[in-house]
Amino acid sequence: MLPTDANAQGDVHGGAIMKLADTAGALAAMRHARSRVVTVVMDSMTFQQPVHVGDLVHVSAGLSWAGRTSMEVIVSVEAEDVVGGTRRRTSDAFLVYVALDEQGHPRPVPPLLVETPEQRALWQAAEVRRQARLRARG
To answer: How far apart are CA 8 and CA 42, in angstroms?
Structure first.
């Protein structure tokens, strides 16, 4: 991360990390849907530790749930002190994307293959978050 991404204390702005998370999440959703996607919601994003100027940021994203046209993606962010060689988890986020057709309308996405116990646990937790989102919408 560069000084333009940070505040006067050398900590990277949360918004810069959120943008990286959204970019990685969108790419994971696009890879699954094989289409353009739009961000519907960033359900939550935690900032457990700061990211500093000079840190190398690693962002990973993967699907946890897929519906008819929408997908939930889990994003995790780690910061690496490249000189010291240490990595630390700094953020986690849940984002929802909708796949779009050429006219910009929602389009169906392929089902998500849920095969392992870990994938089933991620799916079930995502379903709980989905129900909470739907209740919050009214």
So the answer is: 27
